Amino acid sequence: MQAKEGKSLFDYFTKGERILWCISTTLIIVSFFTLDRENYVTLSASLIGATSLIFNAKGNPFGQFLMVIFSILYGFISFTFAYYGEMITYLGMTAPMAVFALVSWLRHPYNGNKAEVKVNRLTWKEIIFMMGLTAIITIIFYYILAAFHTANLLPSTLSVTTSFLAVYFTFRRSAFYAIAYAANDIVLIILWMLAAISNISYLSVAICFVVFLANDIYGWISWLKIQKRQEAIARS
């Protein structure tokens, strides 16, 4: 774990970021002990995920390391409710892409500061390529998930779409990663609310993604500020 040189981990985060992390983890813990109290894998995954997002919002590669761990744990949780789309997506796509993103972020530090990635702007050609690739992956996964009799097929397929966009933007160091993840959070809130109809303990997972949504919105705001600062320095 790495913070800015000369700063402690506590000082590395702003007061607002510390408050956001504390509120996020408190909500996760309270919802777990209120609604679940058994699946500690869910609790661990949620806390690791929330922590990864606050590091990601700073452009810190450590967030991607934590995302790898979260993806593995979340894949297991998804398997327990036959959300095979989520399992395949996170184990087969999000986790490996988080590894690639970690390498990419480490290879592109901003002005030698390994605790902050250099923000990238995508060209229109790459965006068109990305959208075409996303459409192909969505169609392929729809039939794969249908073959596995995946629960709630349509939102599960949409989750694949938003997840791919999120990991692509993350790998390419684009601020739009946070918007894609926020869209994915909304889909997952719906998915786990549906799961909670059968098993109330899964409501804690839905609450986890409500927390993630708030963090991803902050991540978007934070990356816009980072991008603006980096580009202003580059022009000076």
Characterise the protein shown here:
Helices cover 78% and strands 3% of the residues. Strand 1 and strand 2 (113-117) form a beta hairpin. It has helices at residues 9-12, 15-35, 40-57, 62-80, 84-107, 124-147, 153-171, 177-198, 203-235; strands at 109-110, 113-117. The model has no long low-confidence stretch (mean pLDDT 91). The longest helix is centred in the last third of the chain and has 33 residues, at 203-235. The two termini are 31 Å apart. The chain has 236 residues and is mainly α. Helix 2 (15-35) packs antiparallel against helix 9 (203-235). The chain is built from 9 helices and 2 strands, in the order αααααββαααα. Strands 1-2 form a two-stranded antiparallel sheet.
Write the layout of secondary structure elements.
Blueprint: H1 9-12, H2 15-35, H3 40-57, H4 62-80, H5 84-107, E1 109-110, E2 113-117, H6 124-147, H7 153-171, H8 177-198, H9 203-235
Antiparallel strand pairs: 1-2
Helix pairs in contact: 2-3, 2-9, 3-4, 3-9, 4-5, 5-7, 6-7, 7-8, 8-9
Features:
236 residues; mainly alpha; two-stranded antiparallel sheet; 9 helices; 3% strand; globular
